[in-house]
Predict the 3D structure of the following.
Amino acid sequence: MKRLWFAVIFLVLAGLMCAGEQIYIDNLVRDMNTKISAAEAALENKDYREYEIKTAEITKLWTEKNDILYAFGEHATLDTIAVQVRSMPYGRGDESKELQALRAQIYAYYENEKISLSNIF
């Protein structure tokens, strides 16, 4: 009977950890998308000072969150995102395309990490 309680407690803890991971990733993706959209809007308005501020915010957010992401996320995808984030504000004239690529990488990471039957089996 004691083994049964241990198994139940373990399953509950595992479920809570999975739910916490999903909430953490959802919040990160939402915040990153918001900041990327703000940077894109600054580019469209040709407000390069605001663009630099927004890209600095993206970098700061990533720096704050990436250590925890590396604890439970796929490292190859996170490394790709980290390179993209750390190479901002780009300055090669294709900033809009780079921001779209960053958004696509973050979305791909989200799709790979979200709780779904295809990701479990």
Remarks:
- The two ends are 30 Å apart (CA to CA).
- The first helix runs from residue 2 to 44.
- The chain is about 85% helix and 0% strand.
